[in-house]
Structures are given as C-alpha cells and as structure tokens.
C-alpha cells in the first residue's frame, strides 16, 4: 500500500471536463484502494479504448507500487533502503532518486527525500508516546544532508549509510506522469484524459479541444467533502498537486504534529502554509507543493515564478492567501488580460528625518474596500514581527499572530528616498476586483520616532484615468497615485 497518497486528499475539491452537447460524454471510472487511496479517470473516447486506458493505468500504478512504496517490505525501494553496498536498480527507481536529488539541489535542501530515518523515529514516537530528543533528530537530519550520493545514469548505486530514502514527496507525481503515458498509448484517439489519484491529478487535451478542464481547489488546511472551492482553474495540459499539514502526521501523547518535516532540524513544521501548485508534469507539481509548505511564503512564490509554466496558490496558517505571478491567468472566470497589467501606480517617498540616531521606518501599503475590508497587500517593509506590531492598522488586518503571512511579503526596511509600486487590480487570491470605490491604506512607524497612518480614497473604473498627490505630516512623505484607466 502506498499510503502517502492520502496526504493531498481534497487538495482538489472537484474536477470535470466541460464537453459540448454534440460530443459523446467521456467515459468515467472510479476505483478504490489504488496506492492506498482512490483513483478517478476520465477518458474522452469510445468505450473500448477508454477501458483499455483504465486497465493500462491500473497495471502501471500496481507495477510502480512494487518499485516505490515505502510501506511494503517487498518493494524495490525497501530493499534498497535495507541493503548495503552497490545495488542494481530499476530505471524507475533510478529516475525517482535522480528527481529527488535534482529538486534537493534546486530548492537548496528544502525538499529532501533523505529523511527516512527521521520519519521512522517519529513513527516510533507516535507508538511510544515519547517525543524524540531534538538533538537526536537534528543529528539524523544533518548526517543525511551531508552524505554524498550521486544517482548516476547507469550502473549500480550505493546508498549512503546515513540515508534512508523516503520518496513520498515525488513518487505519486511520477506515477501519475507514467500513468498518463500508458493511458495515451492505450487510447490514441482520445480527445482528453484526466487521471486523479487521491487529489493529485494529471490532465491532457488533444490539440483543438475548446473546453478546458474545470478544477476546483479546496482549502488544504480544512478539507471538507462538501466545501466550496477557494478557486476554480481552467486547465488544458499539465498537473496539479496540493500539500497541507492538517490531514496526516504523528500524534504523540495528546499533541498532533505535521508529517512534513523540516529538513534541517528534523522537527515537524509548525504554523506552516498550505500550497497548491500547477506545473507541466505531476512530479514537479508534487515536489513543489511540498517545498512551498516548508519554505517562507515569499521564497516559495519566487521559486514558482522562476520555473517555466509553474503557478502556485499558498495559504498561510491562518488563511491569508498569496499567489504567484502566473496563478491569475489560470482562473476559470477571469477574462484574458495582459501580464503584469498596472491599474494603479503609487509613487511614495520615505522622508529624510533629522534624528540623533536614525532608524529606517517600518512601512505597509495595502488596498481595502471603503469599510476597511482587506483587498490586497501591496508592500510591507520590515521583517521583525515585534516591530511590525508598531503598525497597528496593518497588524490587526494581516500580521497579527501570523508569522508566515509576515514572511509572505515582508522585505527589509529602506533608507529615505523615492520608490514606486503598482497594483494590477486583483485581490489577494488573484481575482480581478470590481470597479468601484477603494482605499489605499499607508502606515509607517519608526523606532525612536513617530507613527503615521493615511487612508486615501480612489475610484477604480475602466477607462477613467486620474492623478492625485498627497503628503504625510511626519513619517510618510509625498504620495502620488496614478490610475491608468485600463
């Protein structure tokens, strides 16, 4: 049994194919107890090739379970983890180990398949009810991270003594990609195929198909069978995976700990975000969803933006949303728009203030509705949470008791000077907001200095451009608002 797959259960609230009325409905299949969870397949083809695709997928997932399961003593992975010396490995195990090491390097160690010994120690703790010593976990994680291992393209592989491989963070994605390969070969005339295993899914459409897959994204922090989706995406070809800390983990005594481990300390992640990632292949989506649940939010979004055709949606521990640059373009209800479109440009000034000892101010700019409801965080300068509390208006709406949210966009403070930022007219979830009346909220505070808060009204309206200037009295300098009218 490949139990790890339950990790992402309900990361997708729903997925289906919109098919024109003149086209026959796709063949839909459901199977339980596949890799320890459920399998759902939709094949837009006639019954015979659709059945062939189903059987090919079932056979391929069973074959790869024999190779990659860490829950079975007779799997190839388990044998590799328990034997010493050089060992012959299958092409699939070699490929997965190569993916593990590639992404470990690409994420600077944040994603790691080397924590098998640490995970086993946590499973022992869950049985005994006694927490493992932090020093022991840190030593196990450090030894695994420092071990030399290079999964060569050919020849036998030797597992380092300090490492037990746990490939759960990439294996299901790898299996989904291989399952799509065999499904397309078994049903070459299919117009579209979806394969969903326990909430992770791989999608494909033939060229010329006009109706994309509609995929609902659920709240991975609080999965509900009947929960409304946080967003609905329109996908044509690619994969989606989600990772959260709510559905699995280790219970030691009366306390529950996340199954996602810090690769440096060996301790379960606390107050960490949940992530949903769209990528060209399921293995990449699987890896990145896990990595973004460990990384500071800003760093995770930067990683997603640096990779081609990757989009991410991250929820902080208390539910504050953050999206990568490409996420809005995937939203099903969003009209096509130019990338990085600017609807409001704000030129702001940090004033030069004479002081015996000058400290650069902490500063926050955000957009709200006229009743103060948060719409979009634009900028936070200052990375120490205890000083960010000196911005009480921003703190009450965004920062309070939510360190991951602070890490999401907070940047170092800046010295006096002129700066600029832009708002694309979207909310924190990436949705385009309606035209209407809004407030630009600006708040600044300086250690050993003063505090100032400005609330500046503006009207967002298509085709209506406007320039206005404002000036603070102490900690905020000149502010210029330019509405583009686009």
Structure description:
The chain is α+β, with helices and mostly antiparallel strands. The protein contains eleven helices and 24 strands. It has helices at 47-68, 76-82, 91-106, 116-128, 134-146, 168-186, 282-292, 297-306, 385-388, 392-399, 403-409; strands spanning 12-17, 27-34, 37-43, 86-87, 157-158, 192-197, 200-205, 213-217, 231-235, 238-243, 249-252, 255-258, 274-279, 311-315, 321-323, 344-350, 362-369, 374-381, 410-411, 417-423, 436-445, 451-460, 466-471, 478-483. The strands form six sheets. The chain has an eight-stranded antiparallel beta sheet with strand order 2-3-6-7-10-13-14-15, with helices on one face. Helix 1 (47-68) packs antiparallel against helix 6 and helix 6 runs antiparallel to helix 7. The longest helix is centred in the N-terminal third of the chain and has 22 residues, at 47-68. The protein is globular. 41% of the residues are buried. Residues 1-23 have low confidence and may be disordered.
Describe the secondary-structure layout:
Elements: E1 12-17, E2 27-34, E3 37-43, H1 47-68, H2 76-82, E4 86-87, H3 91-106, H4 116-128, H5 134-146, E5 157-158, H6 168-186, E6 192-197, E7 200-205, E8 213-217, E9 231-235, E10 238-243, E11 249-252, E12 255-258, E13 274-279, H7 282-292, H8 297-306, E14 311-315, E15 321-323, E16 344-350, E17 362-369, E18 374-381, H9 385-388, H10 392-399, H11 403-409, E19 410-411, E20 417-423, E21 436-445, E22 451-460, E23 466-471, E24 478-483
Parallel strand pairs: 18-19
Antiparallel strand pairs: 1-8, 2-3, 3-6, 4-5, 6-7, 7-10, 8-9, 10-13, 11-12, 13-14, 14-15, 16-20, 16-24, 17-18, 17-21, 21-22, 23-24
